[in-house]
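1st attempt posting a full record on here, be nice pls
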Amino acid sequence: MIYNPTAGGRRRRRLNQAVARLRERGARVDVRETTAAGDALAFAETAENFDVVAVAGGDGTINEAANGLLRRADAPALGIIPLGTANVFAAEIGYDDSAPETAADVIACGDIRHATVGAANGRVFCQMAGIGFDADVVAGVDVALKRRIGKGAYAWESLRRFWDYRKRMFSVEIDGERREASSVIVANGRFYAGRYICAPAASIDEDCFQVCLFRNAGRLHVARYGLGLLRNRLQYYPDFEILKGRNLRIWASDGGADDPVQGDGDVIARLPVDIALSAKRLAIVKP
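the predicted structure (as tokens):
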């Protein structure tokens, strides 16, 4: 069980509840606490003689563990105790109840599902990758504020980025077809930023991405797109386009570089970026 101890006292209690439930079911559980970025990746890559490597945390820790597991030739399955801010990937694989005992029961008795994942410049992502406004928000979020107020930190940073917004356009090549967009979300699953639906047809069972293109730039359009996401109406906007794709290259249209690429809620790469389906599927324990 990989756990980040900076998550706070309440989450520590939830972790303890999950571990106690697993031990009641006869499981041997080792808890490994992270102390720095990269620890979850290293723990997942090197854990030997375990049936499951579980993550008690959020999407960022899951992302690290997935990267570690997929470096292995014969990796155990990934389990999840949802303790994060949004728990998007947990929702994607079917978690309706985030109670730690329920998640522990899933790890003990759930079925194994092999999920498609993507890679951005070689770094794996499970749920989505984003370029543009959302990536700027992720890059700017204050970690200490996020620990204190959770999702509110993203709302605050979104507001700050909205007032400091500068128009940028990105060139997107999808399986050889060129497009322009102000923001791009490469969706591997339906859900985004919680249980909001960005790409209704996206699925971790499919061997392709749903590439969401926000075609217009400017504050007005950022506000429109945000409202459309909150209302689950984005797919009906005429300047919002979804295309299927397997191999992408994205770069700043003005030739600039170093814009952030967010994956699963953390910065995982910088532009220009090549995004493709991973050659390996991720084994996960599902409800």
